[in-house]
Design a protein that fits this description.
The complex is a heterodimer of chains A (about 290) and B (about 270). Helix content of chain A is about 70%, strand content about 0%. Chain A is mostly helical. Chain B contains 13 helices and two strands. The longest helix of chain B has about 30 residues. The chains are: A mainly alpha (about 290), B mainly alpha (about 270). Chains A and B meet through helix 1, helix 3, helix 4, helix 5 and helix 6 of A and helix 1, helix 2, helix 5, helix 6 and helix 7 of B.
Chain lengths: ~290, ~270
């Protein structure tokens, strides 16, 4: 078997399967968002009316703003805390390092259930504060879940994602040359300088990889803002979901136009993040 | 200080589950009691309807069939994913060829396309193709987010395999079968097993794709929990029980990784989508 055939035969099944399923999803939904949906009594292909609605509708613009307002702080906080945690994980076997991984291994719906049992009005947190005499009735605690601040969504994302960033950072740090820090030490660098000029640059590729993955997820996430937002965190994903669930089936092409706009939004934001990294962190993003 | 910080995180990561256990066992848990005043097993004689774990175990909840559905679908997704991703990962790890970047881009593209966008697109096509609401439709849909992780992790695993060792074996007369059985399999097994376990977990955790392609007819544990949550109310015992049920596979995986597969496993494939 020649090398060329070995390459082709090895790649063919994965590419074919992905093209069949992923390609079907992309092209089917693209056609629908352009008005081809005879099953729902919409036969206007090709029309840009649904995309025009996306870009002119004030509700969608507000949803896009909410998407950023939900995703960016959660991603940033998760990255900062996760990097700090990753630098505190030892390379050797450690029970704390194992326990830290638990949030990675449960689905987001379980994280939502945990957020509900702890943070809901009258939840465990409120009861604990009441036992300490800090509050009298559940209403004394600010609304953490369905309040407009979206604290519950933020906490859930950070709880789930900081350990992920930490593991990536710890893995890269374990593979980095430890002599660099020692050299810096010998030359009189303070601990803060060693962190700033040696350790952080070493783990930056891991932080960037974690940033791309968590930001892409948080921008497109449905479960957490839908279940914990109480209707106040209607991001683009939640808007698309609601439009699809609308009893009026002619709304479905609208749902797909929002979903496609969301996909473009995610791709552009990730591309912007990578471009910024290439500009400000030379030598990191080229990999 | 680093020690306190990581143990603090270890507590933040695990202690919240204690409240979930208590909530799943509660029958009467009124404000402002920190613990329930009446537990599930104290009320099971008097309650008219099955409650808490009684409900989860009863046929009415369909919780056990849903768990079996989750396991069956995740097993099929893992098998199908391994069958197509492993050969591709092997090529990506060892061969140089033209169009490599394009292939990598295509194989990783599902990472940046939101699950909801894929699910909405597939929901419609699945109806046209007649696989909506079937196990096979859901299995095919789950392959989309699973494949990038499998390809990435398996490529890392394959990169760790020193091909010179295989060449040396061939020089000494080993045939293709012997190279596979005595070299590739024992050397790669831990990494491949870890990749497979993550693919299984990822599939078992998928909600949006399962709901939209399964059309409510394919009910997994994750879908059951999703359907019960939301609304801002306190967590009911049944949801707490389902959440604990859904936590089990991940905890088992952690124990497996920490014990049997320790040190050979690359966690970089475990992305917080699960």
């Amino acid at each position: 078997m020649t090398r060329r055939w070995r390459v082709a035969l090895g790649l063919a099944p994965a590419l074919a399967l992905l093209a069949a399923v992923f390609g079907t999803a992309l092209f089917g939904s693209l056609a629908q968002s352009l008005g081809h949906a005879p099953a729902y009594g919409v036969e206007a292909f090709p029309t840009l009316r649904y995309y025009r609605a996306v870009f002119t509708d004030a509700g969608v613009a507000a949803a896009a703003a909410r998407t950023l307002a939900t995703a960016l702080p959660a991603t940033a906080l998760g990255l900062v805390l996760g990097t700090a945690l990753g630098l505190a994980l030892p390379a050797r076997r450690d029970p704390a390092a194992s326990l830290v991984q638990v949030p990675l291994l449960v689905p987001y719906v379980v994280a939502v259930a945990l957020a509900t049992v702890w943070l809901a009005g009258g939840g465990v947190l409120a009861r604990a504060l009441a036992a300490l005499g800090l509050i009298e009735v559940p209403q004394d605690l600010p609304r953490l879940l369905d309040g407009a601040a979206g604290v519950g969504v933020l906490i859930t994302f950070v709880w789930k994602q900081a350990p992920f960033t930490a593991l990536l950072v710890a893995a890269v740090r374990a593979g980095a040359d430890p002599r660099l820090v020692e050299v810096a030490h010998v030359f009189g660098a303070t601990p803060l300088q060693r962190l700033r000029y040696v350790t952080l640059p070493q783990v930056m590729p891991a932080v960037l990889a974690a940033a791309v993955i968590t930001l892409a997820y948080n921008l497109g996430a449905l479960e957490v803002p839908l279940l914990l937002g109480g209707g106040t965190r209607d991001t683009l994903a939640v808007s698309a979901w609601r439009a699809y669930a609308d009893p009026d089936l002619t709304q479905r092409p609208q749902a797909l136009a929002i979903a496609w706009s969301l996909t473009a939004f995610v791709v552009l934001t990730v591309a912007a993040l990578l471009a910024a990294a290439r500009r400000w962190l030379p030598g990191v993003a080229g990999r | 200080m680093a020690r306190a910080w990581r143990w603090g995180w270890a507590m933040v990561a695990t202690l919240p589950f204690v409240a979930l256990v208590v909530a799943s066992l509660a029958f009467r848990w009124t404000w402002p009691d920190l613990l329930p005043t009446q537990w599930w097993w104290e009320a099971r004689q008097t309650a008219r309807l099955p409650i808490g774990w009684d409900y989860v175990a009863s046929t009415a909840s369909r919780a056990l069939p849903a768990l079996l559905t989750s396991v069956a679908i995740a097993t099929a997704v893992t098998a199908l994913g391994l069958a197509v991703a492993w050969p591709a990962a092997r090529v990506l790890a060892h061969e140089r060829f033209r169009g490599r970047q394009a292939v990598e881009l295509v194989l990783l593209a599902p990472l940046v396309v939101p699950e909801l966008a894929v699910a909405l697109g597939l929901a419609v096509s699945a109806v046209q193709l007649g696989v909506a609401g079937t196990w096979w439709g859901v299995v095919a849909a789950h392959v989309v987010p699973t494949l990038p992780y499998l390809v990435r992790t398996l490529a890392a695993v394959e990169q760790g395999f020193d091909r010179d060792v295989a060449d040396a074996a061939r020089v000494h007369g080993a045939d293709a079968w012997a190279v596979f059985w005595y070299l590739r399999l024992p050397l790669l097994a831990p990494g491949v097993a870890a990749a497979a376990l993550f693919a299984f977990l990822l599939s078992a955790h998928l909600v949006v794709l399962t709901v939209l392609v399964g059309q409510g007819r394919v009910e997994t544990t994750a879908v059951q929990l999703f359907a019960r949550l939301g609304g801002g109310a306190a967590l009911d015992p049944v949801s707490a029980a389902l959440a604990l049920l859904l936590t089990l596979p991940g905890v088992l995986l952690l124990v497996l990784l920490d014990g049997v597969l320790r040190r050979r496993v690359d966690l970089r494939g475990a992305v917080p989508r699960t």
